[in-house]
Design brief:
Largest sheet: 9 strands, mixed
Radius of gyration: 19 Å
Strand order of the largest sheet: 3-4-2-1-5-6-7-11-8
Number of domains: 1
């Protein structure tokens, strides 16, 4: 099996080392693992692509490249330059430092990399490690992802729904709970949740030179979502597995809207 890995935390991120271990185990001794990851951190870029300017790409070692672009850019660079059109069998994106549950999924470059792979017709899984008070006390804050990641990916490859013929094929968003590996209770298929009463915001600051700047500020990450949705099951100690697709149509209101506007 040929596996491509990327992330949004950058080529030197510790989560990418965890993902390399997972991908190597999945690929097996006869397989290949290729890394094309951002040269610098790209958190929060979503499914952004560098459409209006070129990007530099550099080979850092065998099967290992850094690109000055987003995770989606890295997937495109891998498919159409690094791999010379020889598509991988699987794309893994992550392991992100921090959760991509609930509304975070809409901003996530980790999700963006997996989404681009799915749009290119390749099975893809995004993996993220929820952080919190318990993980901060661990020698390895990625312990839950490191210990349980391979089994989750194998389960999805063996039993997951992939809809290879669909225009907008399914990809998966996996979030590991903010607990030690031994405290993980299992995994649950969960819908994307929504953290109520919290959101991203802009926080103004004045620089020493007197210029005004804005920092984008995240909301509280441990606010629970509705029972059974991703962040809620993560905070209860479970790995969340959320099937996603890039189709943004609100299918549930199509018929009603057509009648209203007829």
């Amino acid at each position: 099996m040929r596996i491509l890995i990327t992330n949004d935390d950058g080529i030197n991120a510790p989560g990418l080392e965890v993902l390399t271990e997972i991908a190597t185990a999945i690929a097996g001794p006869e397989g290949e693992v290729w890394t094309v990851a951002p040269a610098f951190e790209q958190s929060g870029v979503g499914h952004c692509i560098s459409y209006t300017h070129p990007m530099m790409i550099a080979k850092l070692g065998p099967n290992r490249y850094a690109a000055e672009g987003s995770p989606a850019d890295c997937v495109l660079a891998a498919l159409y330059d690094v791999l010379q059109g020889a598509k991988p069998d699987l794309v893994l994106s992550g392991v992100n430092r921090g959760n991509n549950s609930a509304e975070n999924a809409l901003y996530s470059g980790t999700i963006g990399g997996a989404m681009e792979a799915a749009l290119q017709g390749i099975p893809a899984i995004a993996l993220s490690q929820f952080m919190g008070p318990q993980t901060s006390e661990l020698a390895d804050p990625f312990e839950a992802a490191r210990v349980h990641g391979t089994a989750v990916v194998r389960a999805l490859l063996d039993k997951g729904l992939w809809q290879a013929e669909a225009d907008y094929r399914i990809f998966y968003n996996v979030n590991f709970p903010p607990v030690a590996a031994a405290e993980v209770k299992g995994s649950k298929v969960a819908a994307q949740g929504f953290r109520r009463d919290t959101s991203f915001s802009a926080d103004p600051h004045i620089s020493p030179s007197g210029k005004r700047f804005l920092w984008i500020k995240g909301g509280p990450q441990h606010a629970p979502t509705l029972p059974g949705t991703d962040a809620a099951v993560n905070l209860d100690g479970y790995i969340s597995i959320t099937p996603m697709r890039a189709d943004l149509t609100a299918h549930d209101v199509l018929a009603d809207l057509a009648v209203r506007l007829a």
